[in-house]
Amino acid sequence: MNEPAYALGLVREDCKDIDATLHQVAMWTGGDFSKLKKLYKKNRKRVKPFEPLILVPDLSFSQVAIIDANRLRWPGLEVQVRPRRQYRYGKLLAHVLGYVAEANEEEMGKRPELALGDYVGKQGIEYMLEDRMRGVKGLAQYEVDVTGRRLKERILKHPRAGHEISLSIDLGLQKLAMDWLSEEAGGVAVMDADTGQLWALATAPSYDSNDFSSGLTPEQWAALRDDPLSPMQNRVIQSVYPPGSVFKHVVAGAGLSYGMLDPKETVNCLGQVKLGRHVFRCWRKGGHGKTNLEKALVQSCDVYFYKMGKKLGVDRMSDFAKACGFGKLTGIRLPHEKSGIIPTRKWKRRRFGEGWQGGDNLNMSIGQGYTLVTPLQVARFFAGVINGGKLLKPLLLKDEKTEVQGQIPLSQEQLTLLETALIETVRNNRGTCRRLRTKGVIVGGKTGTAQVVRLTDELKNLKDDDIPYKYRDHGWMAAIAEKDGRRFAIAALVEHGLHGGSGAGPVVKAVIDYLFLNKVHVKPEARKAKARAARLITVNPTRSSNAH
Q1: Among residues 380, 475, 515, which one has the least CA distance to residue 187?
Q2: Could you tell me which of 494, 249, 283 has the C-alpha nearest to residue 378?
Q3: b or e along 352-369 (b: 16 or more beta carbons within 10 Å of the residue's beta carbon)?
Q4: pLDDT tens digit string along 65-114?
Q5: Which domain holds residue 256?
């Protein structure tokens, strides 16, 4: 929404002493004369002598009162009333809506309808739908007396308002997701599996869009820019992560698609496999024993997928992953989306000057190695698993029509195998997503743990809570949920969350309860405090870790 704001302009042909006037403006506003003079020199060529050149874009009420009281002593100064964008939900929707700010030289050069002091969309929906939401200026002619008081007004051209938009975002759900991400870094995407509409797109930490529309101070900008948690980053679409075990459904799909996987055939997991001199271990030290496809997905057996990755090879895994929408932009109406990386032989040769190795296949098969994805890509893929294989464009507007961008290359029978495994991962007592069980709702899920760095022996021996924050694994949880014909896909990523089940699982469970049970479970304060404390943990190189 817009609200009236006050700007101070200078009409050059009415001003008797430019420097003296600029000095007085600096005194009234607490500004710097040299900066005002630089601004004046920079913009005077763009503004006609009889038009106001904006010196201060946002005046306080007290400043307006002082200037108005002294207006006759300082001819040429005019207080301009202009609309200013007010973001009612501030940080809650900052990465969706974005913000507006004053147009720069380049933007004014490209768009002749823009004038000095005009605001334009810089990020988010504000940027992508700038033309749709911007209205058309009107034109008025005024007759004034010697003091500048308006006597007559004639409208030469009526203004036209821009178009309103309605987001698909559910504010209650967005607020809930942001609450669960508080004190964390991460993102949550909730997609209607049949339409592609996004009910939540939450990323944390966030920033307040109002700070940009009112004008950031250099100190405020430096704080945002230098924040180690990067609050300006939209982690759902702009951050890419190793998918971890969430990617096992993609590898399983590749095996089914190429006819190289018999779902009933078993692999004997003894807890590790050898490839040359290297040992690749399963997360369960003792192994899973005889394991078929469903058991491998339900219990997330690494050895099963090591062997599947070795059989498939990088070419098949990469081609199938790309057919599932990974390594490509989703096309969401937000700027600066990242496509992630689905590695190939050529990619590795170009990037590192090295050939593809057998161990690379094994790493890729469990979502490690070079593979990088966004949370939104994960949500879209799992939506496709339950909607008949349709890869839908993620939508943020209520009036956007559903758009099918691709098709997962699997038969309905094969998709059902993947969906059944997701559901059993919740139902089965040995499934890794048991915490998602919800009465009356069909729920499926897949956890993922994405390694950030290879831990040293010293760090491996530490308890989870003692591992330094920056070395902790990322936690993934992808889920599907259905009741009464409503189907959703959910993807949550908590940076350095250690494990998918404990790190991202509670976020997803809260989302499911909101969607289907109308329950709101806020994040416990103790969990927030624990997340805050985690970022302070460091390692004493000679002894154990300690917090300070």
Answers
A1: 475
A2: 249
A3: eeeebeebbbbbbbbbbb
A4: 998 888 888 998 988 887 777 788 889 999 999 998 777 778 877 887 77
A5: 171-215+233-547
